[in-house]
Amino acid sequence: MPHHTFKCSECIPERTKHAVIKGADEDLTSCLPLGYLNTIPGSISERGCAYCGAKHVIGQPMKDVIHISHGPIGCTYDTWQTKRYISDNNNFQLKYTYATDVREKHIVFGAEKLLKQNILEAFKAFPDIKRMTIYQTCATALIGDDIDAIASEVMDELPDVDIFVCNSPGFAGPSQSGGHHKINIAWVNQKVGTVEPEITSDYVINYVGEYNIQGDQEVMQDYFNRMGIQILSTFTGNGSYDGLRAMHRAHLNVLECARSAEYICNELRVRYGIPRLDIDGFGFEPLSDSLRKIGLFFGIEDRAQAIIDEETAKWKPQLDWYKERLRGKKVCLWPGGSKLWHWAHVIQEEMGLNVVSLYTKFGHQGDMEKGIARCGEGALAIDDPNELEGLEALEMLKPDIILTGKRPGEVAKKVRVPYLNAHAYHNGPYKGYEGWVRFARDIYNAIYSPIFQLSALDISKDPIPTDQGFLTPQMISDPALPAEVRSSTVLTPYRGAYDTISALREKTYPRFDAVPVAQ
């Protein structure tokens, strides 16, 4: 596999080893780009930091918790309400976030008193919330504030509250993945085993690496409930603080996102002997295989198969309808974390899409290995790309759609490439059988949208005069309009544009009325 050098990065030769093009019959030992390394100076990385990985990805989805960042207010603002981690307590964790608002004087004289004051104010403002997570940031880590001591002091003064301290400043790792590791291990060390739960089933699991993006967790929870499985805790989407303290009593750790949460699964296996089972909630076949594996572990395969048969019969006809219309469309798979490899093969097999590129900003080489293995020859794999490299890749690959985050997605829209939000979704949830059809529908609507078709028309030399007022197609076709006006040259450009729009719409946007409707 040859390394690929972007023209915009020729002045940074180190970037050469971070992009490769998959060749024919290559084994993965020779085709992996470098990954999970410190950002190369001058490359203008769009990565998140370790603090972001700890708070934004894993900590913030806990629903009944006051999340407070000890540092400048900008750190908190950057990680607030940027994903749709919904919860069943009216989204408390999304509505409110807290910062100690550390400033220059606090850097000089210390900010421990400020932190304690903020903690007490937060508990007073929300007396019903008795749990808190404090996140360390770069500024307060560098001046040496002892957050653990302050937390212990407050818990002594307020015996009914409990506080978790996450020491994961931004510089704690090469990217946000370093923060994933920090908070995983800290939670096991500080909190797991401190609450004894009520066990109500013979089959008890921790659902790990699930963040309830637009209701993903609720979809999977429904399947587990139908199988008679008790979800002891969800790490961490819609998860309760005390429920997560009881993770040590589960019979099985069911792991969805191995990039962000495999660390806690491995620790729970070592310390409490709880086995780990990796699953995949995206796509009909991966999801079906996952339910079968869980059923096999507990000896309830028949319950799993009943769900698979019912859901497949209900939703497969709609998925097939979209597959016929998406077949051969080119997609750049530029998401975060495990979606790199959760989606790579299944969107090709079950939706007919052709993955022409994949990238990751914070993934490890193991993530890239699994993603590349599931792509076809010629796919461009990039580690930690910047905006200019992304634009150059779009010009070279000319994809029909991009599945990525909001920042690169908005850039892609400027060059008339539609995108779907792979992090927070457009119209999720995307997990489950119905969710996978919903995902296919969003891809279809994005690719065939008349807006993107019309955006390619060059109107820089539009002959329509600007001093004649505005006439709509309805006005032009109005019988009351005098015949001499209707046939005038002034209206000709309007009529031509209207005909062009109509033709484009019929040509590029297949009608939806043929979609089979689930009963």
From TrEMBL:
The keyword Iron applies. It catalyses: N2 + 8 reduced [2Fe-2S]-[ferredoxin] + 16 ATP + 16 H2O = H2 + 8 oxidized [2Fe-2S]-[ferredoxin] + 2 NH4(+) + 16 ADP + 16 phosphate + 6 H(+). GO terms for molecular function: ATP binding; iron-sulfur cluster binding; metal ion binding; nitrogenase activity. Its cofactor is [8Fe-7S] cluster. Its EC number is 1.18.6.1. Residues 49-447 form the Nitrogenase/oxidoreductase component domain. It holds the Pfam family Oxidored_nitro. Keywords: ATP-binding, Iron, Iron-sulfur, Metal-binding, Nitrogen fixation, Nucleotide-binding, Oxidoreductase. It is an enzyme of class 1 (oxidoreductase). Belongs to the NifD/NifK/NifE/NifN family. Hexamer of two alpha, two beta, and two delta chains. This is Nitrogenase protein alpha chain.
